[in-house]
């Protein structure tokens, strides 16, 4: 049997797909299992021996045409609810083609039959979650396990997977012991959070433990402000993916906004505090919360007045205190 999976979007989403990948492997141990990724997110699975073949979708390539060149598959599964992955899977013309979309993406639901012959409809809808406070949304990991079950993969594996080596972990040997790690992403600097307020958060966290900062590319412009801060023990930029994961693994607690750092921290089993966006908090805090690790979820304020920012800072520091105490319980 030949099975093809496709996930060409973000790094964090592919991290959350690793239990589904492992479930397909465990359910079809003798199959040839291939996965299509982008050049960007391939780092998540390039060491993963659940996969027999890693295929890169070139930038700018027609997904359906590319899929048509990947013939000979019995099963193809789009692990992302995106047109790119659905079209790629459809192009394979595999006998069983599986994908999913969201409840109120009406056009996507109508066109899904063009690409897949088994479709899962996800209950994850930001507007419905705001209207219906009791609405339950499955975690992304669970949704993906339910998805691959439609393809016959029923032997569920629940753990996230990242393959780190001793060489990856060398980078963390020069860091302080048991630091708080704060990952900078652009969402620290907009829509209910500011540069000055984030610097104050770092100052307050430094009173609890040494603070190490990692920096996403979208936050490079703000990195110097943190490098100059006396409360920052170390700021690390442009780390290769596996070294970055090893630095997160070294932390006692990870603090981040809603980025891939949330899911990498879960994969290396670190307690995590996530500041989610104010809008659609009810959805995001269910579907993309830290997975199977101690965590605290904080809602960013709707405004950037000082009272709101001060409350936001207190919630973050209080949440980190709780996670630090729990990590030594």
Topology of this protein?
Layout: E1 2-6, H1 11-27, E2 32-37, E3 53-56, H2 63-68, E4 75-78, H3 83-92, E5 96-102, H4 106-111, E6 118-122, H5 126-131, H6 140-149, H7 166-169, E7 180-184, H8 195-206, E8 211-215, H9 223-227, E9 232-237, H10 241-250, E10 253-257, H11 261-267, E11 272-276, H12 281-287, E12 295-299, H13 306-327
Parallel strand pairs: 1-2, 1-4, 2-3, 4-5, 5-6, 7-8, 7-10, 8-9, 10-11, 11-12
Helix pairs in contact: 1-6, 1-11, 8-13
Can you list the strand order of the major beta sheet?
Answer: 3-2-1-4-5-6
Summing up helix and strand content along with how strands pair, one would put the structural category as alpha/beta
Number of strands: 12
Poorly predicted spans? none
- Kindly state the percentage of residues in helix: 25-40%
Quick check: average pLDDT?
Answer: 96
The CATH superfamily of the largest domain bears the name Glycogen Phosphorylase B
In total, the number of domains comes to 2
Overview in brief:
This protein has 329 residues and is an alpha/beta fold.
List keywords for this structure.
329 residues; Rossmann fold; six-stranded parallel β-sheet; single chain; globular
Structure description:
- The protein has 329 residues and is of the alpha/beta class.
- It has two domains: 2-149, 3-Layer(aba) Sandwich (Rossmann fold); 167-327, 3-Layer(aba) Sandwich (Rossmann fold).
- Helices cover 37% and strands 19% of the residues.
- The protein has helices at 11-27, 63-68, 83-92, 106-111, 126-131, 140-149, 166-169, 195-206, 223-227, 241-250, 261-267, 281-287, 306-327; strands at 2-6, 32-37, 53-56, 75-78, 96-102, 118-122, 180-184, 211-215, 232-237, 253-257, 272-276, 295-299.
- It has a six-stranded parallel beta sheet with strand order 3-2-1-4-5-6, sandwiched between helices. A six-stranded parallel beta sheet has the order 9-8-7-10-11-12, with helices on both faces.
- Strand 8, helix 9 (223-227) and strand 9 (232-237) form a beta-alpha-beta unit.
- The protein is globular, with a radius of gyration of 21 Å.
- The termini are far apart.
């Amino acid at each position: 049997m030949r099975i093809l999976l496709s996930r060409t979007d973000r790094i964090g989403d592919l991290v959350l797909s690793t239990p589904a990948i492992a479930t397909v492997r465990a359910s079809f141990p003798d199959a040839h299992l291939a996965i299509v990724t982008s050049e960007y997110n391939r780092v998540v699975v390039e060491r993963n021996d659940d996969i027999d073949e890693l295929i890169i979708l070139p930038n700018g390539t027609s997904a359906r045409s590319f899929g048509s060149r990947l013939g000979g598959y019995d099963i193809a599964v789009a692990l992302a609810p995106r047109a790119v992955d659905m079209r790629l899977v459809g192009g394979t013309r595999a006998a069983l083609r599986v994908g999913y979309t969201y409840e109120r993406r009406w056009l996507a639901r109508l066109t899904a039959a063009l690409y897949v012959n088994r479709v899962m409809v996800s209950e994850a809808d930001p507007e419905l979650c705001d209207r219906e406070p009791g609405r339950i949304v499955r975690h992304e990991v669970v949704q993906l396990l339910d998805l691959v079950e439609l393809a016959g993969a029923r032997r569920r594996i629940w753990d996230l997977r990242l393959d780190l080596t001793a060489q990856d972990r060398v980078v963390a040997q020069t860091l302080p012991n048991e630091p708080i790690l704060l990952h900078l992403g652009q969402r620290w600097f907009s829509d209910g959070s500011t540069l000055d307020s984030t610097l104050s958060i770092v100052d307050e966290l430094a009173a609890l433990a040494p603070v190490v900062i990692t920096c996403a590319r979208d936050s490079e412009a703000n990195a110097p402000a943190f490098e100059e801060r006396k409360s920052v023990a170390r700021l690390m930029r442009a780390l290769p993916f596996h070294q970055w994961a090893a630095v997160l693994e070294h932390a006692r607690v990870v603090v981040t906004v809603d980025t891939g750092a949330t899911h990498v921290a879960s994969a290396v089993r670190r307690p995590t505090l996530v500041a989610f966006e104010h809008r659609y908090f009810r959805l995001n805090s269910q579907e993309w919360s830290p997975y199977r690790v101690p965590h605290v979820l904080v809602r960013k304020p709707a405004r950037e007045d000082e009272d709101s920012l001060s409350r936001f800072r207190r919630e973050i520091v209080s949440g980190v205190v709780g996670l630090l105490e729990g990590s030594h319980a």
